[in-house]
Design a protein that fits this description.
The structure is a single chain. By secondary structure, the protein is α+β, with helices and mostly antiparallel strands. 28% of the residues lie in helices and 14% in strands. Helix 6 (295-303) crosses helix 9 and helix 28 (955-978) runs antiparallel to helix 29 (1014-1030). The model is unreliable at 182-186, 396-409, 447-451, 639-693, 987-1010, 1125-1137 and 1139-1155 (pLDDT under 50). One of its GO terms (molecular function) is tyrosinase activity. It comes from Gomphillus americanus. Belongs to the tyrosinase family.
Length: 1275
């Protein structure tokens, strides 16, 4: 079918059915197509179906002295802050689009919205970067001096019209946004293009204050054009796009500041025209004595947030890296303050403080954004690019009620930027210019030709309204609920000389049952009405000062950024949210749905009535039949909040909220079929072509059975194997037959609860947990009656399954499994967030935190280090990888994976800013900028490991083999630790002599049974590993220096993984639960070095729970461990800090070996030392003292004593209790030498000094505590 010469008309169904395009009749054409574009240009150019096809004629007629129209082109690119590269071309969409303003009239060219004659016109033409494509969006807003008319080129949806037929579609006027929903001519849902809610043009960064930046418009700075891909720039050449490119690509673009002036002019004129249409008679002269409708929508500009603007922080001096100004719209309605609406008694003070923060590393902003909230930029992808980690935003966690009919789908995204992106700090949604203009109109005295009438509201009433919750300038439910008392009509009272809107509103509020609650918005409004309003500015000033003071604190900044995220999440489900690459996401948002500001500058979870308000409102505006005016709640809330449904609302408000769906995008592709950035599709008309991840009507045969038998989200090679294992295990342990429809149906809700909470399946591989879309499929199946086949009817449950949000974990991956992007994120975090190359960076504090506070030789040792790791992760906002030194292939000297991981050996890397920098995983500043051996400002490591495996035989290769073989002996120590039923001796418990009724010199040797414990066995190979990485002079070999080496993090993550395996396989261990792990706060997300109260600290009990309960899990290793770790064992009584406790007060005698006894070498009375030592043990008569278990059969083993460090500058460690004062034991397992060890052994002790390892004479070390080993045979 050929394109129609006249625009089609789109009829919006307000139902799940597709919208309908119809051919307009002559009467409709005559009544509606009266503007220049619809009546003149389009009928003459009906074949213009591309952006280029529309622009070229206007560009041609704009040239020369007799130009018929002006032509101004602007560019917006949500992702223009990031470089488009060959590597990301397959998935990264910069969302480039252009806005062109064309204006003319009978006298020729005009400026946009100049309106010099009644026949003047302005067109706003919007299209994508693909200038000649017919399947990308193309829209026109046509202004005739009175109203906007909206047109779009799209695929037609009409009976008898073949699919793919293009046509121009008329989608209503700006006035249609305000017509009653029942009106046939109301041709849009929420304004034209379902998002121009106030009928006017949209420019979300419309209001630019001071030096706040344009973060996605082409303007002064930053310029997105250099980041465009070359293929796009080639398509913008002068020959192909003369209206865009002159001497250089995009050189004809104008800045956003120019466009801002045009758009504000257009909005202001439309608002005035709208008021004229609403309030004047048919001749547009006299103001009406009776306003029949529309007032509620006008008052909504005051009480409701109809739309928003976007703003970001900016450097106070762009030429210097100094403090940044915060957008004031986050804290007060700067739009109303600018217009001074409210008269001389405005609530706003005469002077506003400047809100600012320091962007420097380690400042409160960085800590709040990167540590506490983990702000990132996301983009939706399908499929997930190779090597990238998906972030799934499940639809069922949206505040809009999940409903298969709404088209809500789970969205899979990837992280574009692990921060808010360049020039995008403190990006917020703030009060809009449109709402301020609406308030201005409503509060302005009317001045018609003959006579005048006052404003609809008195200043007193207006100020009383605005003083209800002014601390929340947008999305205030307290002001929003007041809208229900506003009448839609008003009558002029000639006696009083006023409209009765004011009096009727006050009367309605006074009569509300909610006034019985003195804290309700209704009561607050009435109190404000009676107050001395001259005091409002002082109250407001007190609030602003509180905000200013809190901006300088981590808690305050975290509060304000969390509040910004809360407001963004409300906005994201509203119409025309197309700014995914502009607005950041907080992946660590917390457990509340909504937050709100209080008058003291603090941020708290939203009141339950507010949660109900936004749930109801947002469900409406994101549905098929959206209503901008909220549903009244005054008559129902009093009863509702005490009912069970209120409890549900309250519970919902405490559920995790990782995702809010957003609206169709006009930038990602076709208007009809494109998916918006992180979005849902509301209508079938604009449903994405990608298949939904959640089947709408799942059945057992088609969708559910396979979830158990061959989980489809796993790699194909693993699906059937994993599924069969689940089935076998549940048959044995359940018993539950996951292959049986009847069995699964009977236990369906319980299965859902277990899978959603990730208590099932029981696995160490986090990829096996059920993804959010799979959980939603299963829940939908339950909701619809657990249908077996498509022949079964849908029988909906009266009470649908309560959706549970999946636990929010971070996954610590094997360092060998990291993708290139994940390695980059890790490196950048060390560079930019922790500042490993700066003595003023957070890195120095973290190293000293470990040096002076870590616990050793006691029950709290590994729980304390778990805290340290969690705290670092909270700072960098991403998981720390683990180094699996226990991998089978890592013990082979010929393996490429033996020794240190390659990422710690690389010299340089490319930073995201394009610069080549030293690799922060290798070049990290040592303690106070000087390594332990005094040779470098950077940390130093064992040179044998740093140099790697030599390619040629010789002494160097022999030394390499010795090092790798030596660590193999440590693995057996770790394995021994994992087999212990006893965890530790509780803190504060004395020596366990109570097992003996009496003591004597001649006790029966058979009483020398040993109590073995995990922590004592585990700490010894931990120490050995430190010495192995550090060598004789390296920083990892000294506790004062070890925390400054980045490899310390991944090494301890590897140990923590084994610690977690132990905890999971020994669920009944006994610990001193309340013992404080200073200086960490609860969950180890903060530190307080001066906190005197242990009640505020993390505890051993908290840190000996499974890692899942404290926010992280471990991914599977790249290579299996060289020992088994899956045995589940029973708990035993606890002991403390000891590898072994021998139940006799006397020295351990040398016993005679029996069949049930095993030899050990025990070191008693072990205590902390300042310096580090190596204790090597050899059989008597050894021919060599080479510490290599492979080449030297007489080498028994090594114990490394990790020194606590010598205080610098006579400064004592801050935590003097960090090393246990009570004596502990260390054990060397010598079972493999049982036949030879009876002939004795000897020791070689070396002290590790800055110059190297120095052998300690026996006369010296035999008098040192815990250095003399004794042979014992234990049961």
């Amino acid at each position: 079918m050929a394109p129609s010469p006249w625009p089609w008309m789109r009829y919006f169904q307000r139902t799940p059915q597709e919208d309908i395009d119809t051919v307009p009749d002559a009467a409709f054409i005559q009544a509606n197509f009266t503007d220049f574009f619809g009546s003149i240009w389009l009928p003459q150019n009906s074949n213009a179906m591309t952006f280029d096809g529309v622009l070229r004629p206007f560009w041609n007629t704009s040239q020369g002295a007799s130009a018929k129209n002006s032509f101004s082109m602007f560019c917006v690119a949500d992702g223009g802050r990031w470089q488009a590269t060959t590597a990301n071309s397959a998935w990264f969409n910069q969302h480039i689009r252009f806005v062109v303003l064309v204006a003319g009239g009978p006298n020729g060219s005009e400026s946009p919205f100049q309106d010099s004659t009644p026949q003047s016109w302005t067109l706003c033409i919007v299209g994508s970067q693909q200038l000649t494509a017919t399947d990308r969006f193309l829209q026109v807003a046509s202004w005739d001096g009175k109203v906007f008319r909206y047109y779009g080129r799209d695929e037609l949806q009409a009976q008898g019209v073949p699919d793919g037929t293009l046509g121009w579609i008329y989608q209503g006027t700006s006035a249609d946004a305000f017509l009653p929903d029942s009106t046939d001519s109301a041709s849009s849902y929420l304004g034209p293009f379902n998002g121009h809610v106030n009928g006017s043009l949209l420019m979300k960064e419309l209001r630019k204050y001071a030096n706040l930046p344009w973060i996605h418009w082409f303007g002064t700075s930053p310029d997105p054009v250099p980041n465009f891909p070359q293929s796009i720039l080639d398509s913008f050449s002068h020959d192909l796009a003369p209206y865009l490119t002159g001497e250089s690509p995009c050189s004809l673009l104008q800045s956003a500041e120019v466009m801002m002036g045009y758009i504000t002019e257009g909005i202001g004129k439309w608002m005035n025209t709208r008021a004229t249409n609403n309030f004047r008679d048919s001749n547009k002269q006299q103001y009406l004595d009776f306003i029949p409708n529309g007032l509620k929508r006008w008052v909504a500009h005051i009480l409701l947030t109809t739309t928003i603007n976007i703003a970001s922080a900016a450097l106070q001096d762009p030429n210097k890296h100094n403090d940044m100004d915060v957008p004031p719209g986050h804290f007060y309605n700067q739009e109303l303050a600018t217009f001074n609406i409210g008269g001389k008694n405005s609530i706003f003070p005469n002077f506003f403080p400047s809100f600012y923060f320091s962007p420097s590393v380690g400042a409160p902003y960085q800590t709040a954004a990167n540590k506490n909230l983990q702000l990132v930029i996301l983009q939706d992808v399908n499929p997930v690019p190779p090597g990238m980690t998906p972030v799934v935003l499940p639809a069922n966690t949206s505040l809009a009620a999940p409903d298969p009919k709404t088209g809500l789908v789970n969205i899979t995204c990837v992280v574009v930027d692990s921060s808010e992106g360049p020039d995008g700090q403190f990006t917020i949604v703030q009060p809009s210019f449109e709402d301020a203009q609406g308030a201005r109109v409503l509060m302005t005295q009317m001045s018609p030709v003959n006579g005048s009438k006052p404003a609809f509201l008195s200043y007193q009433t207006f100020n009383a309204m605005m003083m209800v919750d002014p601390w929340n300038p947008i999305y205030s439910w307290r002001r929003g609920v007041l809208l229900q008392y506003v009448p839609d009509s008003a009558t002029f009272d000639s006696t009083t000389g006023t409209y009765d809107l004011d009096a009727t509103f006050v009367k309605n509020v006074t009569a509300s049952p909610m006034c019985k609650d003195s804290t309700s918005p209704e009561s607050l409004f009435l109190a404000n009405l009676k107050s001395d309003q001259t005091k409002f500015p002082n109250i407001f000033t007190t609030y602003l000062n509180a905000v200013q003071s809190r901006l300088g604190t981590v808690d305050g900044m975290t509060d304000y950024l969390r509040l910004a995220e809360s407001r963004r999440r409300i906005y994201r489900s509203l119409p025309l949210d197309e700014f995914a690459l502009t607005l950041p996401w907080a992946l660590n948002y917390g457990t509340e749905q909504y937050w709100e500001m209080k008058s003291d500058g603090t941020v708290v979870p939203m009141d339950a009535r507010g949660v109900n308000f936004f749930n109801t409102w947002r469900t409406s505006v994101s549905g098929y039949n959206p209503q901008i005016i909220p549903t009244p709640d005054a008559d129902t809330w009093n009863s509702t909040r005490s009912s069970s449904s209120a409890e549900i609302i309250s519970t919902q408000s405490h559920q995790p909220l990782p995702a809010i769906a957003c609206q169709p995008s006009t930038s990602a592709g076709r208007l009809r079929k494109s998916g918006c950035p992180i979005s849902k599709r509301r209508h079938a008309k604009v449903m994405s072509t990608a298949p939904l991840r959640t089947p709408q009507t799942p059945t057992w045969n088609d969708d559910i059975r396979v979830l158990f038998s061959a989980p489809p989200w796993l790699p194909k090679g693993q699906q059937q194997q994993v599924g069969q294992n689940w089935i076998d295990q549940m048959k044995y342990w359940g018993p539950l037959d996951l292959c049986s429809y009847e069995a699964v149906k009977a236990q369906a809700e319980i299965i859902y609860q277990h899978c959603a909470s990730q208590s099932m399946p029981i696995t160490s591989d986090p990829t096996q947990y059920w993804p959010a879309d799979v959980l939603e499929t299963f829940a939908t199946w339950i909701d619809q009656g657990c249908r077996q086949s498509t022949d079964d009817p849908i029988t909906r449950l009266k009470s649908p399954v309560t959706r549970l949000a999946a636990p929010a974990y971070v996954t610590r991956k094997d360092v060998r499994n990291l993708t290139a992007d994940e390695i980059q994120i890790f490196r950048v975090a060390l560079d930019d967030i922790l500042g490993v190359g700066s003595l003023q960076g957070k890195w120095q504090e973290l190293g000293q935190l470990h040096a002076w506070w870590c616990l050793h030789y006691q029950e709290g040792t590994f729980p304390w280090h778990r805290c340290w790791l969690r705290y670092v992760e909270s700072l960098i906002g991403s998981p720390i990888p683990y180094w699996n030194v226990f991998a089978s292939d890592a013990g082979d000297p010929t393996s490429q994976f033996a020794g240190l991981p390659q990422i710690f050996l690389d010299e340089t890397y490319i930073h995201p800013d394009g610069s080549t920098r030293p690799n922060p995983l290798k070049y990290a500043l040592a303690y106070q900028g000087l390594s332990k051996d005094k040779t470098s400002k950077y940390v130093q490591r064992n040179p044998k490991l740093v140099n790697g495996r030599p390619s040629q035989p010789g002494p160097a290769l022999d030394a390499w083999n010795e090092e790798i073989n030596l660590f193999a002996t440590y693995r057996t120590m770790f394995q021994q630790a994992l087999l212990q039923d006893l965890f530790s001796q509780p803190e504060g418990i004395g020596m366990p002599w109570a097992n003996f009724p009496t003591f004597s010199e001649s006790m029966d040797p058979t009483v020398y049974h040993a109590q073995h414990s995990f922590d004592g066995y585990f700490e010894q190979p931990h120490d050995n590993g430190h010495g192995w990485v550090g060598g004789s002079t390296g920083d990892m070999s000294d506790n004062t220096y070890t925390g400054f080496d980045p490899i310390f993090m991944v090494y301890h993550c590897g140990l923590d993984r084994l610690f977690d395996i132990y905890l999971n396989t020994h669920p009944n261990i006994t610990v001193t639960a309340q013992f404080p792990l200073k200086p960490f706060g609860s969950q180890a997300l903060s530190v307080n070095y001066t906190n005197p109260s242990p009640a505020l600290n993390a505890t051993i009990g908290e840190m000996t729970r499974s890692s899942q309960s404290i926010g992280y899990i471990y991914g599977p290793p790249a290579c299996p461990d060289n020992f088994g770790t899956s045995d589940r064992r029973q708990a035993a009584k606890s002991t403390g800090g000891f590898s072994i406790r021998l139940l006799n007060k006397q020295s351990l005698p040398l016993l005679t070996k029996t069949a049930t006894q095993k030899p050990i070498i025990i070191f008693k009375d072990v205590a902390c030392t300042d310096q580090s030592y190596e204790i090597d043990v050899f059989l008597n008569g050894a021919k060599s003292t080479v510490a290599d278990p492979v080449s030297n059969p007489d080498f028994v083993g090594r114990l490394f004593r990790l020194g606590m460090g010598i205080p610098h500058d006579d400064n004592e460690p801050l935590n003097k209790g960090r090393c246990r004062s009570a004596n502990v034991t260390r054990v060397l397992q010598v079972e493999n030498f049982a036949d030879k060890i009876k002939d004795g052994f000897f020791q070689v002790v070396k002290r590790l000094e800055s110059s190297g390892a120095v052998e300690v004479p026996k006369e010296e070390w035999k008098n040192m505590r815990g250095f003399v080993g004794e042979l014992a045979w234990v049961v």
